[in-house]
Structures
1.
Amino acid sequence: MPARKPNPVTSSKVKALAKAKLETPLTARAKPAPAPRRRKPVDRATVAEVFRRFRAANPEPKGELEHVNPYTLLVAVVLSAQSTDAGVNRATRELFRLADTPQKMLALGEDGVRERIKTLNFLNTKARNVVALSRRLVEEHGGKVPSSIEVLQTLPGVGRKSASVVANIAFGEPRIAVDTHIFRVANRIPLVATDNPLDTQEQLERIVPEEFRLNAHHWLILHGRYVCKARRPECWRCLIRDLCRYEPKTPAP
């Protein structure tokens, strides 16, 4: 069967279109939509004023996870992943009554831990991590919680944020652990202009004046949890409203 000859009309159209595309200046071709402009963070004087107001309103802020010692704090923080502090507190009151040391937690066992935290998300993984980190503390650290963030991060279920919370609350380290509330608030004001929690923590710890750094984590998380909420920030009662560049400001209901 003879080979089919190309249609001369079609071939000429394809060549013409290809030539036109090659000859079109790059500036005339379609461009991707520009990325939204990142707002410039407030200056250092404003950062200091933000935290002066937070301190004046709440001189001694406290974390909301209930605990009785560094070990129970560590366990509570591990259990708080994807769970509310209130939910964790309800689960740990009975758990910590029975096991407030790693030795007692090991004696309780994974099944015993799971039974006490069954109201929490990911209870199987969390129970396994709590028992595993308790074993590590007993075998490698004499049953004591290490103060080093780097060492804490080697424990099962403990990431940088969790380690920073423990170091801050239990050992007085001026660390600013970044959760969703702090990430939102810090970028709304904006104190920083960041894309992820790690960068946010590093920048906050660099720009927050030393006199405020120890409690900055608490002030920011409480502000995000109760005032600068995700869906509807309560700007009408915000004590830093005049310093914050977030727009539009939410009016009173």
2.
Amino acid sequence: MTKNLISVVDDDESIRRTTTFLIESFGLRAAAFGSAEDFLESARLHDTSCLIADVQMPGMSGLQLQSELAAAGFSIPIIFITAYDDKESRGRAMQAGAVAFLGKPFDDEELLRTIRSALHGEWEPTNDLISVVVDDERVRRNLTLVIESFGFRAATFESAESFLESDQLRNTVCLILDVVMPGMNGFELQSELAAADCDIPIIFITAYDDQGSRGRAMQAGAVAFLRKPFSDEQLLQTVRSALGHNTGGATSI
């Protein structure tokens, strides 16, 4: 049995018991705590290799526990679990360096993959910058929350022109781009970037999907052409594909 200790902090006894059983079935050691305060006061704090913490608990919340650990200099990878998943909490947790944000109920394999990632040091936040060029402020705001919740950095622009003139152009590793915008549209920006030898993978998003536009975008080398509305998971899968995190080819959804 490995020496890795996984600590579980959750006020729900049934969740603590079930999660502990799962962890031990993976060949890992587990310790369970009914509150963040109990965990902080325990001798297991210094032995913990990975922490699984509920977001909402009486007294100190999971997010507050994350802040306390960071302030005390503890670099323990944290996997958040919650029945109340919202983008703001997810974004806050991931920005602060959490490994993952799992909605209850989660399956055994999902938990195991996440723990393995944490223990192998793959949990560190990425510095990858995703730029979003969309004229709709509400869409820009929502996409920023989603992107940051995945652990990426985000920069937003209301027009193609403002993106081209920005300092973030050279730092962008993936571009999420609306098709229809006032002024320069998405296809024109794609052409401008190609002409300037800026090889940035582009994910097009649009509410106006047609075969001609889709074909034009993909033939010009777009990573994907996503029709609004799309799910957070669709976006994450596409971004990972763009960054070479999987072997998927161009996506047309």
